[in-house]
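Bumping my old thread because nobody answered last time. Still need a sequence for this structure:
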């Protein structure tokens, strides 16, 4: 039996759900419709470079970058704690990160409306203990909070997976050679965990920069992101050409970010620095 036939279903899946949609996006993004049909034009792409839309794109990239940085700051220590051999309840805490991912993304985001609204659970609790209520719903802070909550597991799990496979004898060797905990982390643990860090950054930044549900619900429509703009062009305005052009621009941004992160992962297994 020819082994090539085994890959046929996968190839068909790739063609139907990846190649064809990408071709349609590129087609609509580089054409305009006239009375005689479609003609090649860069007008949709040129429109993407207008100050109004560049401002929306910049806000999307900025909030996604902030969310990714916060997830990294929170996620790396959590991953280290979960991989600590002296931490006996690691499986329980690991499940606490995984279980919310089983819930619907929309429901998880709606839950924050109940927590953050004016008379929500958080403000009621703060008033009960004598503190002033906070009003962050429908702000940039609420959008970032929603991103961090939804995408934090995507930062923790890749780093956890790499740290779990780390050869502990390397850490013991560093300590035997006189390295303290800080030196051991900087020279051994951190370089070897770079592949997990890069995977986590990629898995958080990409959905964060393209999200539209979080900004619509927690931003209340006041904080327009590129995902909301693309959704509007396809579902409300009906301008598939401009919506496709925005999608192409967003794909270029994501590809550039992947190229930047891959430059810091030249050795897929990480590398131990010299001291």
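Sorry it took so long. Here it is:
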């Amino acid at each position: 039996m020819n082994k090539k036939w085994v890959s046929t279903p996968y190839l068909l899946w790739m063609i139907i759900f990846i190649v064809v949609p990408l071709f349609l996006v590129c087609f609509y993004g580089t054409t305009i419709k006239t009375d005689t049909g479609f003609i090649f034009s860069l007008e949709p792409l040129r429109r993407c470079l207008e100050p109004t839309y560049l401002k929306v794109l910049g806000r999307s990239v900025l909030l996604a970058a902030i969310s990714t940085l916060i997830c990294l700051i929170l996620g790396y220590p959590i991953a280290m704690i979960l991989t600590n051999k002296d931490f006996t309840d690691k499986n329980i805490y690991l499940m606490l990160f995984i279980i919310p991912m089983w819930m619907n993304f929309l429901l998880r985001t709606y839950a924050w409306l109940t927590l953050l609204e004016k008379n929500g659970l958080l403000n009621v609790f703060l008033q009960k203990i004598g503190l002033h209520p906070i009003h962050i719903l429908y702000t940039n802070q609420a959008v970032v909070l929603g991103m961090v909550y939804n995408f934090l597991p995507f930062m923790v799990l890749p780093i956890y997976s790499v740290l779990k496979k780390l050869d502990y004898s390397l850490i013991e060797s560093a300590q035997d050679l006189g390295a303290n905990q800080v030196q051991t982390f900087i020279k051994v643990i951190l370089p070897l965990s770079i592949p997990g860090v890069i995977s986590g950054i990629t898995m958080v930044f990409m959905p964060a920069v393209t999200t539209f549900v979080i900004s619509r619900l927690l931003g209340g429509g006041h904080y327009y992101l590129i995902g909301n703009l693309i959704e509007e062009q396809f579902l409300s305005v009906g301008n598939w050409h401009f919506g496709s052009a925005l999608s192409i621009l967003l794909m270029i941004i994501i590809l550039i970010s992947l190229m930047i992160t891959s430059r810091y992962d030249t050795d897929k297994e990480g590398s131990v620095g010299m001291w």
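The radius of gyration is 23 Å. Let me know if any region looks off to you.
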